[in-house]
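1st attempt posting a full record on here, be nice pls
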Amino acid sequence: MLFLPKGKFGLMFKKLICFLIFLIPIVAVGQQCPSITFPADGQIDVPVDATITWQEVTGINGYLISLGTTPGGSDILNREATGIINSYKPPVGLPENIPIYLSLSILDFTAQPIPCGGIVFTTIDVITPPPCTILIGPDDNAANVTIVTDIIWEYAPTATSYTLSIGTSVGGTDILNEVNVGNVLLYDPPTNLPQNVRIYVTVRPENENGSSAPCNEESFFTGTIDDPCTEIDQITGDIISLGPDIAFPTLFIKCKESSPILVSAEGDADGFRWFSIDGNNETLLSENSDFQIRNTGNYILEAYNLIERSGIQIECASTRSFKVLPSEPAIIESVNIRQLTVGKQVTVTVVGNGDYEFTLDDESGPYQVDPIFVNVAEGSHVIHVRDKNGCGIVSRLIERGLKSDDFPNFFTPNGDGINDFWQIIPPEEIPDVDEVVNGNISIFDRYGSFLFHLDPKSIGWDGNFNGMPLPASDYWFKAIFSNNQEIRGHFALKR
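the predicted structure (as tokens):
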């Protein structure tokens, strides 16, 4: 509880607190997107083991980076969080000799991503085999290594896969014999390693140009089991974990303004704990098997069994980390229509914190990830934009054209604030009048004499001409569609 001082000093202190609270959102709103400092936009021959860097931005919760092989794509990396570190090095390198599309977002003080655009660069064409690598877990000649260890090695620049051999003698392959484990930096043996022996490991990096074989063999010594949360199966000799098995997703999507997501920890366990993660800080949120996710961010589910060891009850726990990312329906920012030799090209531009796909006319699809449609037939069409995460569909009518009902039949410029101006009434489904009106609207008197051009984005005509009020009468107008068709009509000026 906060105790405030009394008297005049207390009043000043309360004002200071209010000012600081008011200042917080102002500081947050003022965040600027960083510029990517390496690689440069359009740069070629970028190394596949390049470290991507950008300007540091202070006062934010972190950065999200995506990498793909298509504009806006994320097939290489999908919104990876880097914390407050303003750089990222792909752990297994980048694909060679291909354009890479990079997009960056910052996380504001509410943990909401703010898109910051991106660049495209092209990686180098690799023409040599990769170098050899070394073990980093366990280290070469390490002792008392647990028999449930993973085999971890350093990234070998330009490597696209690794072939692994494991044995209990020099050059041995009795545990694993020349298996290509893919483009990864870790191998989890399917069975436990033998106890109290030297394990020999050879890792050979490869790419389309071959390998740098032979690579040095490394080794380490395994130890005995002393984990109180494991025991040996007396029949098979396998090591059994006494912690619960956790089957739980690693990613959830929460739609903007949606209700909390109810999740449940499945499986048998003596207890559960849910934590939120903020940097190195863990906050206990619940100790029930069910949990309501209200906010986006990083979380941990911990399940544990209570085990008796020498008259002492201990917890044998298993944990699962998961993320909750935000998503929302798209906002259609613009629709660009370009005449082609056959049909038209329609390009949709959207903004929003989501992963979107597009279709024309039929809301049920099929949808495509490309926001560009070609060979679109003449006439009215509807653009549908769907969030892939299920957060909604937005639609927009395009090329509706104009109707006589879009123009008032009369106006009364008498200064009473009602019908004082004559102007096109934009259709609700087409908020941007530039999509249907090509240029200005022409106004004529009842005899067909041209008076002036009316800007469709202005407040409208006030009934004056050259500063003088025109008489009550019928007047004519002509408006041209964006497809160069035109509509003519008349209206009454009443005084």
